[in-house]
Amino acid sequence: MKVLVIGLGGVTNGGKTTLAEKLKNMLPNCDIISQDDFFKPESEVETDERGFKLYDVLDALYMDEMVTSIRNWMKNPASSGVVTEEPQKTCDNLKNVYILIVEGFLLYNYEPLNKLWNRRYFLTLPYEECKRRRSTRVYQPADTPGYFDGHVWPMYLKYKNELEENASMQVDYLDGTKSQEELLSHVYSDIIKELKKLRE
User: Fold this and answer.
1) pTM, 2 dp
2) Domain that residue 52 falls in
3) In which pathway does it act (predicted)?
4) Which of 49, 62, 69, 189 has the most CB within a 10 Å radius?
5) 36 is catalytic
């Protein structure tokens, strides 16, 4: 049995979840873990001097639990309830290969996770487009006025800069303004190449 762990990280509202779901439907033995499932309750998330809840930082997440969940999946992917039928016939001989897509906004700035990836993708968006998309979404708790400019976007830039400064980190940057079809096609063909390598 072999496992392939794919990171799908990047900007808020960049299309990570949609892309992950579409890939899951196209790939054999594929499962998703979402970082959003590891947020601490609101009462445990720090508030800054402006009254902003600091959700876009690692401290707002149970990162150790997330690492444990991924490691547990890697040890026994077949027990995760993953569908073992092959949705498409592109992948004969891959019955013993399991794929995990981990999607979230802060995947590559936490050292224990960086030992686990086979491939890392990072979705980017320009400021205006990201702000426009974010304004159409409803969050619990809701974004307060100025939250995007005061917290969300600066934290995205901070973590993205950290990533770019880490020369040892192999990351494939994806333009989130491209069509979902284009992004899907790019990532899907990459994963198929990785699967073929595993099979050799």
Assistant:
1) 0.90
2) 8-78+92-198
3) Cofactor biosynthesis; NAD(+) biosynthesis
4) 69
5) yes
